[in-house]
Every structure is written in structure tokens, then in C-alpha cells.
Design brief:
The chain is elongated and about 70 Å long. It is built from 9 helices and 13 strands. It is an alpha+beta fold and 369 residues long. The strands form 4 sheets. Strands 9-10-11-7-12 form a 5-stranded mixed sheet, covered by helices on one side. It has a 4-stranded antiparallel sheet with strand order 3-2-13-8, covered by helices on one side. It has a two-stranded antiparallel ribbon with strand order 1-4.
Amino acid sequence: MADRTRRQHTVSRFYLKGFADETGAIQRVSLPGEPSIVLSTRDATVIKDFYTVTLPDGSLSDFFERAFSKIEGPAAEALGLILDGTWPLEGDKREAFATWVALQHLRSEDVRSSQVNINAEMIRLIVGVSGKEALRSLIEDSESRTISDEELDEEWRDITKPGGPDMNPGANQHVRLMTNLLPTTAAYLRDCHWTLFRFARRAIATSDHPVSLVVAPDHPKWQGVGIATAELFLIPLSRRAALTVQPRRRFSQLLTEVERVPDFIQKGTTSIAKSINQETAARARKYVYHHPNEKPLEGLYLPTPDTRDRPSISNADRLIREEGLFGGMSNEARQALSATSTPKKGDTGMSIDDIPWPIPGRRKGSRST
């Protein structure tokens, strides 16, 4: 316990050094532009116990923070080769860097926040569709007591409010997501088409969420952006280099043998640098980082800090009813509906009975767990 690492980077320190000066100092700009301070890469993107998990016996472990170093070491070597002129990156070096890019995306605050928000929305939807009396049964059965109408009303309002119940972001679930998605995400990125941009003078910035998932301008807003739907992955590599990773399906309409399309290297221009910096700033959560002696953010639009913490499921409000979604339906209608939706073998579903009570991670006074 005494040796547990508590100051944990959400962005790899070896990576941040590519945007720092020779002393290891880096400029941190708080969105939407102020304040701006210079700090060490040792202190940048640090959140206490962000990856510290709780073990079954209740003890705390920094295992995953230390495990990340096994990915970061080979990735740092691969990045060094790129910045020193090696291109394209192949074999185990390409594998190592693709794995780091996948990890850097999955380990971010944004991914954890999105995961928490989805859980809260699902709890809201399940409880709202089930109805207030179903919630009463869940509470009374779990706590072996009778609750008052006033207490039930309070619980109902809190759980079914827009966005669902307030939840504490937890490391355990986030780490579980990372370990599940890392191998497939890394393999997907490894097999994409990579383009390296090099800049002679123009400065490149990075952020607290350096892997940007970019979509086409006509991408439906309701669809969201994920690993499978992104048209482009953008990663600033240093103050003089950036990488784009494109799924090869983008070439399928133009070329018949897309697997043979080589990775590109392109000379960076002022307009390309501005485009990369604007996209990076737009995808940042709270902070943008750059070399202390450069001004890559001049002339750019800097958004307010990320306010995507509480998204809502489209049209979910009309499904939230105190009497339950099917409360006004006759028994005959319910039976008919059940007959048309009989689960097939192997199908899984979730009902209010599957929600543990008290809800783990819920932030509500003494009822938080």
C-alpha cells in the first residue's frame, strides 16, 4: 500500500515530451483559452488514483497503471523511430504503436465519462419503462422493509430525471472495458492506412484527449462517434509531426486492391497544421498542450470545456411513465405482445430485477455505494 502509485497520467508522459522544451516544460491552456500555465510533463494530465482498482477483498491496487508501462515502453521506441525518419512503420513496431494509440484512446477521461453516462441512461430507461410500483418492489425486496410514498417519489424523480441518476465514475468498470476492447481496437488500427505529416516550421498542439475520432461533415449527430464509425483517427505525434489513421474501407470505392495501398508521408503545410490543431482543440476535454515557445492556437476557435457529460437517449422521455410503459394495456394486449416477442434461445435481456440495489456507484447522499 505504501508503494502504490497514486499520481497517474491519463496521457502517457513519454508522448507529452514531444511537445515540451528541453527542460521538460509544457504549456497547458485551459479551455476556452485561459488560464495558460507552464508545468512539467511530470505534472501534466495527472489524476490521483484514476486507474486504481478495488480488489475483491476491498484493497486498492495500481496494477493497471504499472501494466501500462509494458505497452508504453515499446510504443515510445516506435515513436522515436518515426520522429527520427523511419517510415513506414512495420512489423512489431507498427503493432506496438497501434496498441498504444488504442490504449491512449480507451484510457481517457472521455471514454470513462461516456461509459458512466450510458449506464445511467440505461438505468433510467429500465426503471422508467417498468414504472414506479416496480421500483417500489425492487427497493422493498432488496432492503426488506416498507417504504413510504414520499421516499418512493424521491427515488423515482432522481432515477428518471434527464440523464438518469448521478453516477460516480469508477476505475473498475473502465479498466474492464479497456481490457476487453484493447486487443481488437489495436488490431483494427494496425490494419488501417496510416499517413504521416511532417512540419518544418509550423507548430502542432495536443490535448488531454490526443486521439481524435473524426467523422464526415454529413455524419448524423444522433449516431454518435465510435471506433467503428470514425472516418479518421487523428493523433498529433510531436510539435512537428502528426498521424492520421484511416479505415481502408474509405478506399474501396476508388481502388480494387486496397490492402496494397502503402502508407503515405506528406509534407505539412500551414493549412494542414491549422486543421489538425483545430480538430485537436475541438476534441479536447479540458486542456490543450503545446511547446512553451510556440503559439499553435492563434486564430483558432477554442470551445468551452467538454459539456458532453450528460447526453440523453433520443426520445426516451416518452417512455418514462409512472404507471410503466404498458401500465394502461389490457391483459389480452399484454399477452399478445408477449407472444410476438418471445425470446429465442440464447437471447439475453435486462429488466428492473437485474438492477442491483442500492445502485453501485450512484451518487445520492448516504445511498451511494
